Amino acid sequence: MSDRPSAPGGGRNTRHPAGIRAxxxxxxxxxxxLGPVGYLRGLTANAHAGSAAEWFTLAFGAAVxxxxxxxxxxxxxxxxxxxxxxxxLLAWPVVFVTALHLTQxx
Length: 106
Fold this sequence. Notes:
The protein is mainly α. The protein has one domain. It is 72% helix and 0% strand. It has four helices and no strands.
């Protein structure tokens, strides 16, 4: 049994929905920036910039792991809409990988 009191009126028990949305937005920003940056650095890696595998791992972790973390945080907080938007970010790696490869061949 939980020590937290139930929400008044039988509603959701999310105490700070704006705070949760701010955290989810910050995580989404990290995923949107770090994924493409890591992938681009992996494509252009040389001996001085680190190995490509390290950069591709960073890109994958940022582009896939951070949206999954954001969805988990939003789910625990009871914010279904934020969780769904976080899961929608999983389409972002397909977009930036395709865009980067199309611009490099052109």
